[in-house]
Amino acid sequence: MSCCQKPLRCVASLFLSIFLTLPAGAAQKAPDYNQLSAVTADISQRYLQAYFAKDWNTLETLLADSASFADPTATQLFGAETKTGKTVIMQAFREHYAPISFQFTQDSSMFAIDHAIFVGKLSWTYQLPKQKLVVEKMPMVVVLQMVDGRVVSHRDYADYRPYFTAVEASNPRLKQAKE
To answer: Which CATH number is associated with domain 31-178?
Structure first.
């Protein structure tokens, strides 16, 4: 007896064959651009706030285990090494940023699906052993990428000229050597 002689069995068979050949998740409607971008905005804004406040406990909860961090514009200061893995990144932040206090003034931001881009100016104070070094209004861009509600990539891009100018101004010997 063929399937078509028993209509219910035929319909059930057809339904199962179609359903089982669909890619996983095809039966569900994918989140739209605005929904994904809103989630990215929420997570990335909390992350950025924690980053500049040096709230490492909060930041750690928003960072993926496999995350990476790099600042390709700071190679003269920190080298060209990309930090990979939550533990490595958090250790670097806790150690390298300990003598620094930040204030980020955001000029603009953009959230597109799984990416967040923040543009602004960073003012910071670096506590040297014998003095404070103050760097005012250093242009900066922060780019974050999300996967499954966690930051998987963090890139900083900054114009470090104000930093080097402040270092030179604070050290008369460097100034004299340049002249």
So the answer is: 3.10.450.50
